[in-house]
Amino acid sequence: MKYLFSSLAFVSICALTGCTQSEPAKTKTSTADTKVDTSTNTASTSTATADTPPKTGKVYTVAVDADFPPFTYLDQNGKPTGYDVDLINAIAKNANMNIQLIRKNWSEFPQALDKGQVDLWIAGISVSEERKPIIDYSEPYLTYNTGVLTKKDKKGMAINQTNLAEQRLIALQGTVDFDYAKTLVNKPENLKGISTTFLGMKEVLTNKADAFINNDRVLQYHVKQYPNYNFRVFDLDTKKSSAGSLGIAVKKGNTELVQKLNQGLASIKQDGTYAKINQQWFGVADQN
Asked: What distance in Å separates the CA atoms of residue 42 and residue 36, rounded to the nearest whole number?
């Protein structure tokens, strides 16, 4: 996967260390063909299929989020990109499906599925028992856990789960990871809420915090973008953390589509495509 950086390395360094307040734009080449209209908040469409899609047959509409990196977001040309976009393209190719990406707001989930406005939704959606009565899921395509981002060497010691309670922790306000982080600190003042992942990385880099608690997949992705900053990510005990899995959501009762998606997912796991996509986005070629 080729990433296209819109700024020089100096700008990237300054973005984390404080020379500028903006995060460097990071995009990658996309298989989308039609530019998404970003001038309004209305849903826009983009044809995004496998390299050699079927010439005929049903076109399955796929809802994606415009602002949820690394899973789904828009590149500098306004085209949908992200881990989920690469994944659904690979699944579609192996399941012999035509797909069309449609930009949707999260507030429309899951009503858009139920009303038939889209056929499936992929945007880092957690498999939830509470949602299963109203939607169906594919087999889980990715697991996640509560991760911890630190520097590789902090004051001559390695931060780990045993000494985490003594550290200055930060987490995204209003998330399950923030709630979990409350149980980790030995003093309430050792935990601070922040608003963005980028800010969390900056706080650790500039020694304003010792560790950043967040979704491990999100952390892996962002650390991969900054290989020279000496970050490391480790997972917490899955028995105590907010571990879970992601699935592709479809309208309740659409078992035929679920079977197609599961077939495509199994195929890309078998031929190595799945591992390559994970390696490209997260730096980890896992099979879960």
From this structure: 10
